[in-house]
Amino acid sequence: MSRVVKELMSTDCVTATLKDNVYELAVLMRDHDIGFVPIVEGKKLIGIVTDRDLVIRGYAAKHSGSTAVSDVMTDDVKTIDAGTSGDEAARIMASHQIRRLPVVENGNLVGIVSIGDLAVREIFVDEAGQALSSISEQGTGETHAYH
User: Where does the record place the CBS domain (predicted)?
Assistant: First the structure.
């Protein structure tokens, strides 16, 4: 029987708010060795910023470190709930070409599940490998902010 995301997700999420700027996000990512930061209002998930977003939408677009988070964040975020199966999470990651999925309950961020979370749990090694393979193979040369 497939385990649910609640059993696999990370709950100690480093987050930021719309009051933060591009520089502060870069420092958060460096200090916590992460490449993905959920943007929240209170506990409500309103967007995400990846290290790729900082580069493509921030610095490569000639924005300074004081640029607002809202200028670089993705606000149309694919999310799942904590009761989603690990198998389904892997399928969603593969079909949407993303490596991390915010887990929400009533719009509030409760965790993050990543391909690594699926792969670390041996039961999902095949699913995580297939998801990563699909993400890697579907590159089209277009510039998208993958999460």
Answer: 9-65, 73-132
- Compute how many other C-beta atoms are within 10 angstroms of the C-beta atom of residue 71: 13
Report the length, in residues, of the chain: 147
Domain assignment present for 146 = no
Quickly count helices (H) and strands (E) in the chain.
6, 4
Measured between its terminal Cα atoms, the distance across the chain in Å is 28
**How far lies 91's CA from each of 31, 53, 114, 136, in Å?**
31, 23, 12, 14
Write out pLDDT tens, residues 9-54: 999 999 999 999 999 999 999 999 999 999 999 999 999 999 999 9
pTM of full prediction above 0.70? yes
CATH code where residue 31 lies: 3.10.580.10
Domain extent for 67? 5-137
